[in-house]
Description:
- This protein is α/β, with parallel strands linked by helices and 134 residues long.
- The protein has helices spanning 24-41, 59-79, 102-109, 120-129; strands at 4-10, 13-21, 45-54, 87-91, 113-117.
- The chain has a domain at 44-134.
Amino acid sequence: MDMHIVVTVQPGLLRVQATGHVSLEPAKRTFLEVLDAVAQHGNGAVLFDGTALTGAFNDLERFQYGEFIAHAVLAFMEEHPSVGSVRFAYVLVPPVQDPQRLGETVAVNRGMVTRVFGNTTDAIHWLEHSTSGR
């Protein structure tokens, strides 16, 4: 079963609900779909709710995903400067959520503004008040 997303536009926020089984290539494709929604709606604050996802990345896949999304966002921002800053708050639970935050660290170290949370309330608060990766 691949990953599927439903994007809901809210004031100041794109809410993405992801379901299915997480694996690297479908996760990359799904991320590009989310960036398409950001371009379409012109909203750079993304709440990605992956609490319904099953499976998990291994450490290499976490690294590769973090690197991929950071490069994709940087390229997106060059191509769509009118969107402004793009920030991603991921809401994940183990085993999809990595307690070491490897993917998050890789993405932030490459210039992406992103953070992983265990609940939606903290994620939304961060999106409303963040301008940097941490």
